Amino acid sequence: MRIAIYAGTFDPITRGHLSVIERAAVLFDRLIVVVAVNPDKHPLFSVEERRQLIEEVTRRWPNVSCGATSGFVVHTAREHDARYLVRGVRGATEVAAEIELANANRALAPEIETIFVPAHPELSEVSSSRLKALAAAGEDLSRYCPPEVESRLHARLGRQEAARV
């Protein structure tokens, strides 16, 4: 069985992330989306809230599940007998940092391969940070995230009024 881990902060999950999940779900028998706690980041949503959102928006893929870790992702991969780490890339500027991370993971766990999966081109500008900025401004987020995420973002950021079209 080919098992892969797709880890990220996912604060919150975007259509770009879902694009990577959709592609990886076809490539692997089982894909575990892991909310990775990054002590250098200050997320808007708790780990449990991010997990719940991911579970809600990935229900259509029966081979996708969700977890969380505050440790090294390669350790989580080993716990689940995953031989692959999926990394989503949006553009060339991210590739160098992703290769550096892949090399660090390989040094820790040489038996685990990193697979780079690009988001669909029309979603390449989507980031969780940009999504939060747009939500704070009351913008329509439907192009960038599923409705479940949009409503939670607007509620969390105090923008209960209808988003501008």
Which terms summarize this structure?
single chain, 165 residues, alpha/beta, Rossmann fold, 41% helix
Helix content: 40-55%
The average pLDDT value, as a whole number, equals 91
What's the assembly state of these chains? single chain
General form: globular
Q: What proportion strand?
A: 15-25%
CATH level-3 fold name: Rossmann fold
* Main sheet strand line-up: 3-2-1-4-5
H/E series, N to C?
EHEHEHEHEHH
Structural class: alpha/beta
N-to-C terminal Cα separation, in Å?
45 Å
Q: Kindly provide the radius of gyration, computed on alpha-carbon positions and rounded to a whole number of angstroms.
A: 16 Å
Number of distinct beta strands: 5
CATH secondary-structure class: Alpha Beta
